[in-house]
Design goal:
The protein is an alpha/beta fold. The chain has one domain (about 25-340): 4-Layer Sandwich (Metallo-beta-lactamase, Chain A). About 25% of the residues lie in helices and about 20% in strands. The chain has helices spanning about 5-15, 45-55, 75-80, 150-160, 175-180, 245-255, 270-275, 280-290, 310-325, and strands spanning about 85-90, 95-100, 100-105, 140, 165-170, 185-190, 195, 200-205, 225-230, 235, 260-265, 295-300, 330, 340. The strands form two sheets. The chain has a seven-stranded mixed beta sheet. The longest helix has 13 residues, at about 5-15. It is globular.
Length: about 350
């Protein structure tokens, strides 16, 4: 069937007038045309203005960066059933072992955070171990659909290794994409919804961010963080986020957090990044809002996604802790591949 130009325009206009399929006036974050944040829905700053500024500076150049990689005891992780552990793989990817359940958060094992394999942000820190060395994964949690968090080649490999037994938890609006990629055992959750595995509750929590994978898919799927609530441990991964009251709300609902995984990278320039990515000082504020006993900085040191240098998050975190008179033991960073017994 041949479509005229006017027919195509009319179809696009008509389609744009239709209600968002998740629209629910009882849920403020379910807008008429897209998902919304709880506290800040001001228009996003111009990406193209940022790119224009980068043309006239050295901000887009990749600096020399030699991160410290530790040898992960993957044999211990594969055998471990008794200890609660956290292993930082790099960027936002973390392996959490809680009461014998293996949970992998935002698994990203590809060389580029991009829709294509030949361009886009390149991994600057080598993987500390291969995906094949992971223990059997019971649950994969994806925080949102950006390419540095929802890496489909990695997810497909995890599906293959799990032989259909691995549970994939994704934000509302992402299950269709996952299933189209051959992934099974997929559940999508709205904010505050939860599923249980054994005696552990897994809760999808709000954050201040946005999503987009295709040209016309802006905020058509949700974003957020994940709370792992077990009898022995309460751990929150915030997901990508700007600073908002969401974290006080999480504390009001679920109480003090034992361990928080909070992003500390990809925050410059502030005029562009502030709505979507916290800087280290704001990450510490989230740590305090959550009354976290321990926070770990993630989302840094792996891909260069913004204008600060690769080591700036560590430097700025140290300064912000000193300014707030907090000890470095309260908000830590791990080396790539490092395992922490919780």
């Amino acid at each position: 069937m041949k479509w005229s130009l006017l027919s195509v325009i009319g179809f696009l206009v008509f389609s744009g007038c239709q209600n968002f399929r998740y629209y629910d006036p009882k849920k403020p974050h379910h807008g008429k045309n897209q998902f919304l944040n709880n506290y800040d829905n001001q228009p996003k700053a111009s990406f193209w203005k940022w790119q224009w500024e980068r043309l006239w500076t050295n901000a887009s150049e990749e600096p020399v960066f030699a991160p410290e990689i530790v040898k992960t005891d993957t044999a211990f992780l594969r055998a471990n059933k008794a200890h609660n552990t956290l292993t930082w793989v790099g960027h936002a990817t973390s392996l959490v072992q809680v009461e014998g359940v293996n949970i992998l958060m935002d698994p990203m094992f590809s060389e580029r955070a991009s829709p294509v394999s030949f361009a886009g942000p390149k991994r600057l820190a080598p993987l500390p171990f291969a995906l094949a060395e992971l223990p059997p994964i019971d649950v994969v949690m994806v925080s949102h659909g950006h390419y540095d968090h929802m890496d489909l080649p990695t997810l497909r490999e995890l599906q293959k290794r799990g032989e259909g037994k691995t549970m994939f938890l994704v934000p509302l609006g992402d299950a269709e994409l996952m299933r189209s990629e051959g992934l099974t055992n997929v559940q999508e959750l709205d904010w505050w919804e939860e599923v249980k595995i054994q005696n552990i509750s897994l809760v999808f929590t709000p954050a201040q961010h946005w999503t987009q994978r295709k040209l016309f898919s802006r905020n058509q799927s949700l974003w957020g963080g994940w709370l792992v609530k077990a009898p022995s441990l309460k751990l929150l991964y915030t997901g990508d986020t700007g600073y908002s009251k969401d974290f006080r709300d999480i504390h009001d609902k679920w109480g003090d957090i034992d361990v928080a995984l909070i992003p500390i990278g990809a925050y410059e320039p502030r005029w562009f990044m502030k709505q979507q990515h916290v800087n280290p000082a704001e990450a510490i504020q989230i740590h305090q809002d959550l009354h976290a006993k321990l926070s770990i900085g993630v989302h840094w040191g792996t891909f260069r996604l913004a204008d600060e240098t690769m080591l700036a998050p560590l430097e700025d975190l140290h300064k912000a802790l000193e300014q707030r008179r907090l000890g470095p033991e309260s908000f830590r960073v791990l080396k790539h591949g490092e395992t922490l017994r919780l």
